[in-house]
Amino acid sequence: MKYSKEIIIDLPREEVIAKMENPENFKHWQKGFISYKHLSGNPGHVDARSKLKYKMGKRDIEMVETIEKNNLPKKLFMSYDAKGVCNKQKNYFEEVGNNSTKWISDNEFECSGFMKIIAILTPGSFKKQTYMYMKDFKAFAENGKSVLNQ
């Protein structure tokens, strides 16, 4: 399954990138985020790997993030591997005027087992989740609004 989402963030690109790259900020814009642990490689560089943990409903989810390409501030490509799901995400950051940034997120999901059934039955849920994270990041980056307070 492939799809693309985009959002305009009313901040300069450098500020957007700085807030997005900081793992301390993940809890403020990724609902269910529990922890981040660097596993290998040079943080932020190609082939760096990190473990992320989330609580989604009653399920605990662990995934491994691998940086595939880092050409910031313009591009950041990553893959996320979890049980039954691999998400390849290509993020693009375009300057819009002097003080805004367009974030485009191209996603490709490969699912197996139970997750393949979920993807077939509810493909919109993946798109909705991606866009929710994008909107929550925008609210955090622009106004300091944290999902922890919701």
TrEMBL record:
InterPro entries named in the record: START-like_dom_sf
Entry superkingdom: Bacteria
SUPFAM superfamilies (UniProt xref): Bet v1-like (SSF55961)
Name this polypeptide is given: SRPBCC family protein
Organism encoding this protein: Gillisia hiemivivida
